[in-house]
Amino acid sequence: MKKRIFSLTALSATLLSGHSLAAGFQVNSQSATGIGRAFSGDAVIADNASVLARNPAAMAMFEQKALSLGLVYTDVDVTIKDVNYGPVEYGSVGDAAGDKVIPNIYYIHPINNDFAVGVGAFSNFGTGTDISELNNSGAPVTPVDLFGNTEVITSTFNMSMSYRINQQFSIGAGVDLIYGQGTLRRQGEIVGGSGVQSKLVDVDADGWALGGIIGATYEINDNNRLGMSYRVSPSFKAAGKVEYQGQSYDDIHIPLPNIFQIAGYHELNHKWAVHYTAQHTSWSDFDHITVTGSLPEQTVKSYQWKNSWLFSVGATYQLNPNWALRAGYMHDKGVVDEVSSLSIPDSDRNWYTVGASYYINKHSSIDFGLGFVRGEDVEVRESSAIPVIGEVVGHTRSDAIYYSMQYSYLF
C-alpha cells in the first residue's frame, strides 16, 4: 500500500503546488498570460487554451485546436517573527515557505461549430509552511500544538465541454478530478529540557475528490465580451498515516471553498484592450479540519475564516505583429476574521504584474509573465490548547515573485 501511495505521489509531483500567495491557500498560477495581466479578464479573453482553467464556456470561441504548456516558478518569502507568550520568547522564522515550480497543460478541441471539448491539468489550492524550529527555543513551556509543519497540495485534472447557443451566448461545464496530499505535524517538548517528546498530530495522507465548474460567455460584438463561472470544490478526504493525540484514524477531512468569478474584455482599438475580473471565494466553508475512523470524529483545527473577494484590472497593448505587451494589478482580500493562525499566515495582498507574448508565426507563440506580490505585516494571535500557555502572539508577512513561461500552439 505504501509503495502504491509513493508511486502515485511521485507521478503527481510535477503538478503539485506549494505555498500560495493568494487569500487563504488559493493558488493563482494557472498560466503565464494570466500572471502577466494579474488574471484580469482571464475567464473570457480566450487568447490561448489556458482559459479552460477559468471558464469552460470560453472554449466555444476557438475555431482551431489549441495547446498550451506552461511553467511557473514562485520565489516565496514568508516571514514569521517575534513569536512570544508574554515574557517568553520563541523566536522567528525567516524562511517559513520554500520556493516551488508549478507546471500546467491545456488542450482544446473544437468538434464542430457548436461543440468543443477540452482537458487541463493545473492547481487551485496549496499551502506549505514549516515553523517547527520554534519548538527549539529553550523556553520552559512550548505550544507545540501551534508550531510545526503544515502542507496541503492539490492537482486538478479537468475535463470540460462547451456549447454555442447562438452567435452571442455560449455555455460550458466540466468535471474536476482533484488529487491532494496533506502533511500536518505537531510534535516536540512541551516542557523544555524534559526530554519528553509529545506527538500531538502526525498526518501524511493523500486521496482523490470530485468537483466541477460551470460557465457562460456573452459576446456583445467582436471587440467586447463578458464571462462568468462557478467552481464547486469538494470536502476533501485523504487516507494514510493519520494520528491525533496518540490515536490512529483512517481519514483526514479538509473542506475546500467554491469560487465564483465574472470577467470582461474590451478592445478599444487595434492597439489597446482593457480587461477586468471580480472573484468571490467562499472561505467560510473552510471551517474545521477533522479526522475520522473507528474512533469518534475529532476536530484537529478550526478556522473561522470569512469569504473574500479579489479584484483585478489590466491592459494589453499590441506593439507590432510579433509582440503583445500586458500589465495588471490585483487586490486580494485576506480571509482571516477573529481566529488567525501562524501555520497559514494571511493578509490583504497586492499584485503588480507585467507580461509579453512573442508570436513566432500564425500558429505558435511564447508567453512570459512576471508578478510581484506584496502582503501586509500582520499581528497574529492564536490560542494554544495547552492550558498553561494561552494566547501566543507573532507577526507574519508573505511576499513573492512569480516567474512564468508558456508555449501556445494553434493546430
From TrEMBL:
Presence of the UniProt keyword Disulfide bond in the record: no
Gene3D superfamilies, A to Z: Outer membrane protein transport protein (OMPP1/FadL/TodX)
Alphabetized InterPro entries for the sequence: OMPP1/FadL/TodX
Membrane topology value: Multi-pass membrane protein
Keyword Transmembrane assigned: yes
Signal peptide: 1-22
Annotated SUPFAM superfamilies: Porins (SSF56935)
Keywords noted in UniProt: Cell outer membrane, Membrane, Signal, Transmembrane, Transmembrane beta strand
Subcellular location: Cell outer membrane
Family membership noted in the UniProt record: Belongs to the OmpP1/FadL family.
PANTHER family recorded: OUTER MEMBRANE LONG-CHAIN FATTY ACID RECEPTOR FADL FAMILY, OUTER MEMBRANE PROTEIN NMB0088-RELATED
Protein name as annotated: Aromatic hydrocarbon degradation protein
